[in-house]
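Good morning C.,

I know you're traveling, so I'll keep this short. The sequence:
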Amino acid sequence: MPKTLYVGNLPWGTTEDELARAFSAYVEVRGCRIITDRETGRSRGFGFVEVDEEDVEKAVQAMNGAMFGGREIVVNEARPRQNKY
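The tokens, ready to paste straight into the viewer:
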């Protein structure tokens, strides 16, 4: 079953391909997305990477605090989405 990782402090110009490539050096990446501002389309500096459940710890240990594009990224397991209403 896939799990989602939160990836924060990404450089503004990061693409989904670059993010997926960085994680795929350690684990198999199931999906990847960069969150963008609705109005401007510009990156908000964070994204999500989907990996298999058994790879979560390996990915977090390998990538949390790693330098990516000149910035130290934050990686942890994403919290479940909460309904606003």
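Safe travels,
E.
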